[in-house]
# Entry
Amino acid sequence: MDPIVTFEGVRKTYDGATFVVDELNLTLARGEFLTLLGPSGSGKTTTLMMLAGFEDPSAGTITLDGKRLNHVPAHRRGIGMVFQNYALFPHMTVAQNLAFPLEMHGVAKADIGPRVKRALDMVRLPHLRDRRPAQLSGGQQQRVAVARALVYGPKLVLMDEPLGALDKQLRYELQLEIKHLHDELGVTIVYVTHDQSEALTMSDRIAVFHHGRIQQLASPGELYERPCNAFVASFVGENNRFDGTLVDRDGALCRVRLPNGSLIVASHATDLAAGAPVVLSLRPERVSARAQAAHENRFDGELLEVIYQGDHCKLRLRVAGNEDFVAKVPAVESAQWRRGDVLAVSWPAQACMALAEG
Amino acid sequence: MTAASMPGRPLHALLRATTAVVLLFLVLPIVVVFPLSFSSGELLTLPTPGWSWRWYEDFFTSGKWLLATRNSFIVGIATAFFATLLGTLCALGIYLGRFRGKGLLVGMLSTPMVVPVVVTAVAVYFAFAVVGLNNTLAGLIVAHTVLSVPYVLITVLATLQTFDANLLKAAATLGAPPHVAFRRVVLPLIAPGVATGALFAFATSFDELVVAIFVAGPEQFTLPRQMYAGVREFLSPTIAAAAVLLILCSLVFLALNEWIRTRMNAPAPAIADPAEPN
# Structure
């Protein structure tokens, strides 16, 4: 891995007592798309602002290309940024907005025009070069903002919930567009969002933040399949949760006793001792409602509600005392069941993870 | 005509009449100086014995009045410059700074607006006696700047409420050092507020009398001070001519202010090409 940015022991506190960011150690690989994911107040935006140069770390070191960034002002860091509210200069046209960073970086006058044009072509808005930001739609404004952050060729671009103000359809379009730009240009992107599906769609790696600390740093697939604790499991993707006590372990599997006495066979990744309290996490799509399925865990589930979602249905069931147990099944299968039916639900041991509370 | 509005009609007429009376009350004293300034007589009396331009001629040929006009413009323009510079920087610091007690600070900086001018004038007089600024144009400029800064501060602060602080962050990430960001991004966007503040500062200085009485010697007489001297010494209709000229200046200020205001509130050009989805 060729590191471009490192955080070493970075902490941030405003009052000296509570740490908004606590003991952050993180290395970014050149050219990667890293997402900082977390609920509001988890420290992800503060981390981004420290990297951009708008907040000073209370302790620790941030480096960019091996050089210490502490106390380097934002305008000398050469880090591009895209903001949630676009932050386009309202008194300049689109072309003037794009020319601004080129002028600031001393690009020769003759080169500015062609580079602005290339950047506008890149985001497919060449026809809007003489418009003012107020004359553009939200999606167009954010495309211009992305082009403006990239036009002067920064090695690193930060994006602070850039799609938060857009509607769902447009958000998805722009997610892919930004991802494609990242692939084409090879620029390193640090992206902040609280939307887990956005993080899964776009990222090479995701850092899940909670209480100022990174809970897990992993690829989207690993994060979803092997969350390291209950917080990550519940924050990324949908999740059935059981609280229980670890009974014993056998290789990669373990048995967990629920408060109502039921035993569940689960897999475990972390080192947990017998008798320890654990949280079981089970993805709804891994639950089978077919009677003939042969899985380690089989329970009777009383059907409480069928929630139609078009391509699939969610069944809300009472399973082992849990009234919020959800199974995701194809819509065609669900037609045979009525509320009050008792279904045989089952799931394999490796789909169910025993985790420590995060 | 609906039944509900019928009983409102006499009240409506009364309202109009009252409004007319109030307006007359406000405007008549000002209107009166117009015929007086064109009087051919030596005395400030109505009706005038005849019409002439002689008092305007007197104004534009008298050394005293020309000096006063010159002083007024020098002091007014310098005051507008310094008050705008200080007030704008002050507003920016208060808007962008992260510290407690901003309200208290704005309140303290606004005191010259609230404290009776005569109190400020006396204080300035004694202070200037120590540093030797009485009877100088520079002293008058400093004193007027003190009185004018709050107007600039408040108009610029009001304009900054609509300024998005993220634009400064954006400018920084695009490589603009703070002073360039200020010139290229902040200033163009708050220009209407700055211009209004400058206008207020000039107007404050231009019609200020009390401080001028204390601080200005005969060489530093401004137009209001010269008029005051004229009223006390020899009551000539030149004062009426000067008053008319001052009223015309005020009308120009009003028009300028209105022009800035409409420009500031001008709606963004309509979105063209609505066929485009995004």
